[in-house]
User: Fold this.
Amino acid sequence: MIIFVSSILRRMSNYSNTRIVPCIKRVKYSLYFFLCECSVYLYKSLSHAFGLPYISGVLKSSNHDFKVDEIMPVQPTGEGEHLWLHIEKNGCNTDWVAQQLAQLANVKSMAVSYAGLKDRHAITRQWFSIHLPGQPDPDLTALNTDEIKILQSIRHDRKLKRGTLAGNRFQLCIRDLNGDMDELEQRLSLIREQGVPNYYGEQRFGHDMNNLSKAEALFKGGFRKLKKHQRSIYLSASRSWIFNRILSERIDQGNWNQYLAGDVFMLDGKSACFADDGSDDLLERIAAGDIHPTAALWGKGDSMAQGDCYELEQRVAAEYAVFCDGLASAGMKQERRAMRLPVAELNWALESDQKMIIEFKLPAGTYATTVLRECLDLI
Assistant:
């Protein structure tokens, strides 16, 4: 079927009659999307490090069940032309809050910045900054509502840039638990000791994983016009999926958090990587959590991986040749991401037979849902 439709697409491209070209183009783009819809991407197909959990629970019965607090790597100085605001929001979109700040401060939207987006369906505490050169602090009292609270206001000499984030602290309430609570606590103990697979979360791929279908359409020429931020979303989704599939294969082989010949390692808490050099202490450093095996973030250029690791990554990536070729053509460079995610300060309390509070801290760029995925089947 796909071969037949592809043949039709090639023939359509050869038509030059100006009267029918617009019609052909519309049909052509529709067929591109049809082809991409034929590709199925299932997040649940990704393997679990500790086996499939048989304990179910409900997250986000209300916004109060999902609380996030940003951990900043810098402290405002108290002086400067940037006003930093620590804000608690309940059920609000980060961009919307930024727009309200711009309006109340009477500045352009580009004068307001934040470290990263936060979930709307949650209670989150995050920092914003407003560029106010030579201006006094604006009156922001109108912003204080049931949904938004300004917790702190302080000046700083630099703007808050995207990605300026050390991590996030989570407090999650799981309700309607059903299953063996002893098994749940055993899984949480394993996570505390070993960490979890550092998957990109399901939200990275959009509703019904549609970002991957859109990425496939993008790489096959199925978009006439595409906004820059949409293109970035689809590139990131395709790259993240290849990483997730490689990590899933390493879990199946039992070496996602162990040494594989030719591995590339990342220092804990850092982005610096180094290739397998045969050092005698590699196994010891992996076990101690000082370094973590990595997997590829696909792009152009030579891979740092060698030997068995290189062969595994090439084999998995070959299943997504459209993504690989598209990412390279888009100018994305080869990078690495740690496969193991340590879960810091993990604590939990079973408040009743059907309710548990779980708290932990994660570095920036990682997902709380990947932690829960290893111990719970969220419904």
Summary: The longest helix spans residues 228-253. Residues 44-62+168-192+343-378 form a domain with the Pseudouridine synthase fold (CATH 3.30.2350.20). Residues 196 and 341 are 5 Å apart (CA to CA).
